[in-house]
Design a protein that fits this description.
242 residues, alpha/beta, nine-stranded mixed β-sheet, 8 helices, globular, binds uridine-5'-diphosphate
Length: 242
């Protein structure tokens, strides 16, 4: 294994995890301790190589504003429920990483005294460079946004090399691989092609932000062992959009 961080392709990264990735695929529990243990192990591998990591966590396993709106909630309240849910997921990830002796800091874009720190750019940079994993929760803290936007925004702010979007599939395909056996995985795509073909990579406003700031995005399978490690070492994994 590399111990020399000059051999790393990416030295500072944002990992975007959807809330859905925390669901237990068998018993459908909202928060799967087995996955959280696995995730912590995968993260430890790259932290041990001195990769600086920020995690932006979603909340699709608990609440999404849009879904609550459909059943009668006011959209602002619905989004606030979604925002709070990302903090719950952040606490869960934080807990399991600490159990694996990974140094972490849970930050939230909205103040939540006694539970986590409020997001502060200076402190985030300082803790990252001291090799703490920062968990960015509460999205950007405003309704009508998603955690994809938070991932791209935080990545630009902290000058991350890339946003790694962990999903349940291996990357972006020519068509749905579950429905079409002929579907092919793209190894790379331009921002322009993603927009032209209307490929669903992430929330559109987040994607445009990434494009405007030349922030590369890699879509990959978070459940595949060593995928994170392979990516930071510059090996081919998933789909790179740049
Ligand atoms: N949310 C929000 N503002 C933000 C981030 C999130 O209002 O900056 C709310 C929104 O309701 C969203 C929910 O939190 O649906 C969960 O986030 P997201 O949908 O991005 O979760 P994911 O799909 O990644 O699990």
């Amino acid at each position: 294994m590399f111990k020399n961080n000059r051999l790393l392709k990416y030295k500072r990264v944002i990992l975007k995890l959807s809330g859905e990735s925390l669901i237990n695929l068998k018993n459908k529990n909202n928060i799967d301790s087995f996955f959280l243990n696995f995730l912590s192990q995968e993260i430890k591998k790259i932290v041990d190589l001195n990769v600086e990591l920020g995690i932006v966590i979603g909340a699709g396993n608990l609440f999404r504003g849009q879904q609550l709106q459909k059943i009668g909630f006011n959209r602002v309240i619905a989004d606030q429920i979604g925002i709070l849910s990302t903090i719950i997921n952040g606490l869960a990830i934080n807990n399991f990483m600490n159990q694996m002796h990974i140094k972490t800091l849970l930050m939230s874009s909205i103040p939540l005294n006694g539970i986590c720190e409020t997001y502060n750019w200076n402190r985030a940079i300082k803790f990252l460079s001291q090799k703490n994993v920062i968990i960015f929760s509460a999205g950007i803290g405003n309704p009508f946004f998603t955690t994809d936007s938070a991932a791209c925004l935080r990545a630009i702010e902290i000058k991350a090399d890339i946003v790694l979007k962990g999903t349940q599939v291996d990357g972006v395909y020519t068509s749905d691989p579950k429905k079409n056996l002929e579907a092919k995985l793209y190894s790379q795509l331009s921002y322009k092609t993603v927009l032209k073909k209307e490929l669903k990579v992430m929330d559109l406003s987040a994607f445009i932000l990434a494009r405007d700031y030349n922030l590369p995005i890699r879509i990959f399978n978070i459940r595949k062992p060593n995928s994170l490690l392979r990516i930071v070492q510059g090996l081919n994994e998933g789909t790179l959009i740049h």
